[in-house]
Amino acid sequence: MFSELSIKGLKVPCVFVKTQRRRMRLEFRGSKLYVIAPNGADVERFIENNKEWIYRNYLRQKFYEEEAKKLNLYTRSEKELSQTLARFIAKASKELGVTPLKVKIKRMKSRWGSCNAKSRSVNFNAFLKYLPDELIEYVVYHELLHLKVPSHNERFNTILNAKYNQKIVRSKLRIYWFAIQSFEE
Ligand SMILES: [Zn+2]
Fold first, then answer.
1. Which residue numbers delimit the YgjP-like metallopeptidase domain (predicted)?
2. Which 8-state DSSP code applies to residue 135?
């Protein structure tokens, strides 16, 4: 069911989804709000209680969406992406003193990369092919660093912050994420 919510003067597009779970939750996909709730739940009250969160996040999502429209996406072939990745993997391996055993490129729905430190395997999102080199390099470095430090703890961030301004990089990655989502729909 699709509708529009009026939140503090904003019109927020909204989709209602039924769930078997007992807990209600809200999430944004793009600038659309998904209200996920079981049968008989007091959805109206839930929305009312969370309207500050909805308002704030809607504006944020909208901002990213607008920024995404301004981007020029890179056009790399899959082969070029794997070459670019290989280059940055070699560089990061040298810097960090770790080497992944397995590297896979695949389509992922929620992240740019992932790492399994135990099996020493890393996955990279095939959609990285639309990103500029500097962002691909960050994703590679981030995932390879997980081979050394599996979680996002202080040590992990200290090493990463020495090389990158994470706030800026992550915001750029988010904008590209938005661009690619609209691209794929
Ligand atoms: Zn990570």
1. 64-162
2. H
pLDDT tens digits, residue range 66-88? 998 898 899 899 999 999 999 99
Centre of ligand 1 from the C-alpha of residue 97, in Å = 18
- The domain total for the chain is 2
pTM for this predicted structure: 0.80
User: Given 46, 69, 92, which residue is the final one in a domain?
Assistant: 69
127 dihedral zone (left: phi>0; alpha: psi -120 to 50; beta): alpha
On average, the pLDDT of the chain sits at 93
CA of 171 to the centre of ligand 1 (A): 15
DSSP per-residue letters across 56-115? HHHHHHHHHHHHHHTPPPP---HHHHHHHHHHHHHHHHHHHT---SEEEEE--SS-SEEE
